[in-house]
Amino acid sequence: MTPILDFIISLSFMFLLVSLIVSALTELVSQWLDLRGRMLYFSIAKLLENKDDYNWGEMFYKHPSIKQIRQDKLPIKLGILGNFKKRYPSYIAPATFSQVLIDNIRFWDNVKSTHQPLTEISDAKIKELVESLPEGEMKRSIVSAVSFASMKGISALVAIEQWYSDYMDRVSGWYTRKVGFISLLLGFGVSIAFNINTIKVARELWINKELRSVSADMASGSYQNFNPDNFKSNASGVQTKTDSTRMIEIQQKISELKLLRTEIDSLTTIGYPIGWSKSIFEKVKANAASEKIPVFKMYCSKALILFICVLGWLTTAVMAYMGAPFWYDVLNKIVPLRKTGAVPK
Fold first, then answer.
1. How far apart are CA 261 and CA 256, in angstroms?
2. What was the pLDDT predicted at 234?
3. Inter-residue contact 317 to 191 (CB < 8 Å)
4. Residue 48 near residue 56 (C-beta atoms within 8 A)
5. Residue 25: pLDDT over 50
6. Dihedral sign of CA atoms 169, 171, 173, 175 in order
7. Are 161 and 94 in contact, with CB atoms under 8 Å apart?
8. pLDDT digits (tens, 9 = 90+) for 66-87
9. Quick one: pLDDT at residue 244?
10. What is the average per-residue pLDDT within 143-168?
11. In whole angstroms, what is the distance from residue 77 CA to residue 243 CA?
């Protein structure tokens, strides 16, 4: 039973390291590309699309309240690639959304506008402003939300905030799927960069008892150095954390990458079969020359080796895609079983 536990612990620890690397890189890429801000921008533009000549989404982001929370430049240098100068806020509170929307609606036409403070506008006035909008999808949605709110005794502003929050829940799902695809690509890239071939690693751990035991011992103590509270930052959508919180997280991810590099170096030190050394294709070529293997057979061997490598890298990427919380929980459940030892007769 212990060899099987050591095998599972060693592989799970490797997948945990790869998952953490992918998580940190995904956070850096999402910050550099401003994925949250841009997803929020296009989502609000779609939400406020009214099929008329007035661009409500553009006017929303030109409002002074939105300009104040807009971040022009990423305060962290990400190398020679630099930053996008045009960055959007990654978080807009429901109260801010309803305030800006009503403010834009009451000034969209000077004839129908009112200069009354927003706090003094009654629900009836808000309903009147909404019904004065040009016909379109946005008007229909807001009128429906406000009318339903009046039936349930809810204020019009709260109804608009709820309408926005419900839509943002769907946007968070879209963002999670997009980030998941990016994480899968980064996982495949990390697997190639470090030559983390699951098939090769599993084979070596299964036949090498000493390596399996040493790596399991190291994994049992090392995985507890990571803070599981930081694992779920990438799973969150566009509407959960402010820009300042994201900046703190990105600093933590950079520090975490340094720790992960140390852990990978420790694995290679004990003989873990990862990393690039002498090309396996050179070994095949040398064996073919010494044993006088035909050229066609040699190239078939190369193709088979390449197929196994790609399959192993892809397996590593898929395992890393399952996420650091999953592999941390696996280790939390299996490591105690290893410490209990064999069951007495």
1. 9
2. 47
3. yes
4. yes
5. yes
6. negative
7. yes
8. 887 766 554 444 444 444 456 7
9. 54
10. 82
11. 16
User: What integer is the mean pLDDT of 188-202?
Assistant: 89
Residue with tokens 């890239």: 189
* Contact (Cβ atoms closer than 8 angstroms) between residue 28 and residue 253: yes
Tokens of 214: 């040493």
Specify whether the CB–CB gap between 256 and 231 falls below 8 A.
Answer: no
Q: Among candidates 165, 108, 96, 115, which has minimal Cα distance to 139?
A: 108
Classify the phi-psi angles of 153: left when phi > 0, otherwise alpha if psi is within -120 to 50, otherwise beta: left
Q: What is the structure's pLDDT at 343? A: 46
Q: What is the 3-state secondary structure (H, E, C) of the chain?
A: CHHHHHHHHHHHHHHHHHHHHHHHHHHHHHHHHCHHHHHHHHHHHHHCCCCCCCCHHHHHHCCHHHHHHCCCCCCCCCHHHCCCCCCCCCCCCHHHHHHHHHHHHHCCCCCCCCCCCHHHCCHHHHHHHHHCCCCCHHHHHHHHHHHHHHHHCCCHHHHHHHHHHHHHHHHHHHHHHHHHHHHHHHHHHHHHHCCCCHHHHHHHHHHCHHHHHHHHHHHHHHHHHCCHHHCCCCCCCCCCCCHHHHHHHHHHHHHHHHHHHHHHHHHHHCCCCCCCCCCHHHHHHHHHHHHCCCHHHHHHHHHHHHHHHHHHHHHHHHHHHCCHHHHHHHHHHHHHHHHHCCCCC
Q: Identify residue 34 by its one-letter amino acid code.
A: D
CA diameter of the chain: 92
Its pTM stands at 0.70
